[in-house]
Design goal:
Helix content is 44%, strand content 11%. A hairpin with a 2-residue loop joins β2 and β3. The longest helix has 21 residues. It is of the alpha+beta class. The protein has a 5-stranded mixed sheet with strand order 3-2-1-4-5. The protein folds into 2 domains: 138 residues, Up-down Bundle (Four Helix Bundle (Hemerythrin (Met), subunit A)); 99 residues, Nonspecific Lipid-transfer Protein, Chain A (2-Layer Sandwich).
Length: 255
């Protein structure tokens, strides 16, 4: 997917989340985000939107020393859905005024403005799924979005230790884990290599290679698995290889 598609998808996912929470009791617990209610989730997503928007507006070139932004939170929780919609609208305005190829600081691999649009997309998508699950709905994740989201997650996860410290324990001596989608036309295969000094998505694995452990499932389910929203031991997945390696990965990789 390209930055224009990411921008459009942020708007779509934001609108879907707003519609979901606007029709719901915001005191509803969110099982996939322990200790959160829909009120907490809505406040979190809108705050992230406003923070990322501020980073883009300022085109930051260094990690911010402080995370201060005027959230303009409403006084009453009932106004949070409208506030979230306004947060998304403000983000869309900044996206439209921003060159996605503009160099700027990002915590992940891609040091350009487009990083933050893509990151906002999957932050919003996953929490839209959280909200729907909390209400007993069956979330749908478009396959193209899921494939892009898996790639974004696995590409950037090695750099997430500052806010996901358990990832620093994802170490092994030349071990590999494959995530393989069971739907689509062959564009859904990711091989992760674990080394004594870290781990990374292996971009060049054109030759078939047997991994030490493999997880097979639909792209949408794999995306939610990587984000800790599904259990790898569920019937949605077919597991091959080293079960202890998979348990180690999933105990230390979600953020």
């Amino acid at each position: 997917m390209n930055p224009a598609q990411h921008t459009a998808a942020v708007a779509t996912e934001s609108a879907a989340l707003v519609a979901t929470v606007a029709a719901a009791d915001l005191s509803t617990p969110v099982p996939t985000c322990p200790d959160w209610t829909l009120e907490d989730l809505t406040r979190h997503v809108g705050s992230v939107h406003r923070w990322f928007t501020e980073l883009l507006r300022r085109r930051v070139q260094q990690p911010p020393a402080r995370r201060e932004v005027d959230l303009r939170l409403p006084e009453h929780p009932d106004a949070l859905p409208d506030w979230l919609a306004a947060s998304a609208a403000e983000a869309a305005e900044v996206f439209a005024a921003t060159d996605p190829d503009a160099p700027m600081w990002a915590w992940g691999v891609d040091q350009h403005a487009r990083f933050w649009v893509r990151r906002m997309l999957f932050e919003t998508l996953v929490h839209r799924v959280d909200a729907e699950l909390a209400l007993g709905l069956s979330p749908h994740v478009d396959r193209a979005l899921a494939v892009d989201g898996i790639d974004e997650f696995l590409t950037n996860l090695p750099y997430a230790a500052p806010f996901a410290p358990l990832t620093a324990r994802l170490r092994a001596s030349g071990r590999t884990i494959r995530f393989s989608s069971t739907d689509g036309d062959g564009d859904g295969d990711w091989l992760v290599g674990l080394r004594p000094d870290g781990f990374a998505l292996l971009a060049d694995h054109a030759e078939p290679r047997t991994a030490d452990a493999t997880v097979r499932g639909s792209a949408a389910d794999l995306l939610l698995l990587l984000y800790g929203r599904l259990d790898h031991r569920s019937n949605a997945f077919h597991l091959l290889g080293d079960a202890d390696l998979l348990a180690h990965w999933f105990a230390h990789s979600a953020f």
